[in-house]
Design goal:
Strand content of chain B: under 5%
CATH superfamily of the largest domain in chain B: RNA polymerase sigma factor, region 2, helix turn helix motif
Largest sheet of chain A: none
Largest sheet of chain B: none
Number of strands of chain B: 0
Shape of chain B: elongated
Number of domains of chain A: 1
Distance between the termini of chain B: 46 Å
CATH class of the largest domain in chain B: Mainly Alpha
Distance between the termini of chain A: 24 Å
Largest interface: A-B, 29 and 41 residues
Number of domains of chain B: 2
Order of helices and strands of chain A: HHHHHHH
Shape of chain A: elongated
Number of strands of chain A: 0
Radius of gyration of chain A: 20 Å
Helix content of chain B: over 70%
Order of helices and strands of chain B: HHHHHHHHHH
Number of helices of chain A: 7
Helix content of chain A: 55-70%
Structural class of chain B: mainly alpha
Oligomer: heterodimer
CATH topology of the largest domain in chain B: Rna Polymerase Sigma Factor, Chain: A
């Protein structure tokens, strides 16, 4: 007991007023306000034309963007919740319907395309776009998560990485041909995977509790 | 089935747990006395929770200290509008799991090869038995420390570095070095006391 008493005395001597973190939805809104422009600016390095919404299949592309945005926002709220001890991430019930709808919209988009399989090399540009736009977003989310060091940093970062990937997919949808090919879609998913992995590798030490 | 979390069961026995959120709120405002009070009040519940997860007394006490340090590090994340026990339980559980995982990893890395040990030439054969015994005792005690604590003790007390130099050499902050040293000595003192006189 005496050992812990000494430690407690020392900790109490060091105690300073602290500021509690904002609620997860507020942190998500702040992150979006900062990360979206940064991601868009970073992606300007790649010349892309805005989506032509007069093309057939534009409705699926529009739905895809909205679902990606919703999934991204939910994932970020979930990550900010999870970064706090004793708070759980949002359950799968929140994500499953949206993820299923996203898959359906993507498949419908591929099916409505004239060339469903695409050609080798399709999507490389999209992959580069996702990494360019996603990198500053990851940096910003790591800075945000540093203020609430996580007991399980890897899990928090996987969710945050998926959130960044979804928001990046949303940005990509604004400057992407309406027609999506399977190879193209595969590269989008590869981009999402790379961003998630990047978030975990870049942040697991910096948001862990020392 | 009893679905009350273990820490809540423990805490319910100490009626004062109702005051913890208020005390923690005052601690968040920088009130040292309230902070010390709430940490001391939480200590028995933390210890019982940790001991339930970890049977090894020395390791359990290490984890209790780790939990206290973690509470200090993340005290700003507690929301006084919410119950405090889920917050505390999550910290205890995560720290206990981390410690068990670390110990398991260390055990997996240890190799017991008696033949190789017997065949190895003894470089210390010229030393007196007393010196040898003291050295072995020191190594045995140091070996019980977690890697980071052992490293800091070696830097500061065996290589006689200053705390600041040790912090630079181990890429840690000065306060982290102090905390590691403190925990190392607590562990050494505990081990030294309980093992004294044993073969």
């Amino acid at each position: 007991m005496a050992d812990h008493d000494a430690l407690i005395d020392r900790l109490a001597r060091d105690v300073r007023p602290v500021r509690r973190p904002a609620p997860p939805w507020q942190r998500t809104a702040a992150w979006l306000l900062l990360a979206l422009p940064c991601g868009a600016l970073a992606s300007w390095a790649l010349q892309r034309r805005a989506t032509d919404w007069s093309q057939p299949g534009a409705a699926w592309a529009g739905l895809d963007i909205m679902l990606s945005f919703a999934l991204g926002v939910l994932a970020m709220v979930s990550a900010f919740r999870r970064s706090i001890a004793g708070r759980e991430a949002l359950g799968w019930r929140w994500f499953a319907p949206l993820a299923a709808a996203w898959v359906c919209a993507a498949v419908a988009g591929v099916a409505s395309s004239g060339d469903p399989f695409g050609r080798l090399g399709d999507g490389v540009h999209c992959y580069a776009f996702m990494l360019l736009a996603g990198a500053p977003m990851i940096a910003i989310v790591l800075l945000a998560l540093r203020s609430t060091p996580s007991l399980q940093p890897e899990r928090t970062l996987v969710i945050a990485g998926l959130g960044v990937a979804a928001i990046t997919q949303c940005l990509l949808g604004l400057c992407h041909p309406v027609a999506v090919h399977l190879l193209d879609l595969g590269m989008h998913l590869a981009g999402a995977l790379t961003l998630t992995l990047g978030a975990v590798l870049a942040g697991r030490r910096c948001i862990a509790i020392e | 089935m009893d679905c009350v979390p273990p820490l809540e069961r423990e805490a319910s026995s100490t009626a004062a747990s109702e005051n913890w959120p208020a005390l923690m709120q005052r601690a968040q405002a920088g009130e040292a006395q309230a902070y010390a009070h709430v940490l001391r009040a939480m200590l028995p519940a933390i210890r019982r929770f940790v001991r339930r997860a970890i049977q090894d007394d020395a390791l359990a006490e290490d984890v209790v200290q780790d939990v206290l340090l973690t509470i200090h590090r993340v005290r700003h994340t507690y929301d006084p509008a919410r119950p405090i026990l889920p917050w505390l339980t999550a910290i205890c559980a995560a720290r206990a799991v981390d410690a068990l995982r670390l110990r398991g990893r260390r055990w997996r890395l240890e190799v017991n090869d008696d033949d190789a040990m017997l065949g190895h030439a003894d470089a210390t054969s010229g030393q007196t038995l007393d010196q040898l015994a003291a050295r072995q005792e020191l190594e045995r005690l140091l070996h019980r420390l977690p890697r980071r604590q052992r490293h800091v003790v070696e830097l500061v007390h065996l290589r006689e570095m200053s705390l600041a130099d040790a912090a630079i050499a181990s890429s840690l902050t000065l306060s982290a070095v102090k905390a590691l040293l403190h925990r190392a000595f607590m562990t050494l003192r505990r081990n030294g006391g309980t093992d004294h006189g044993r073969p």
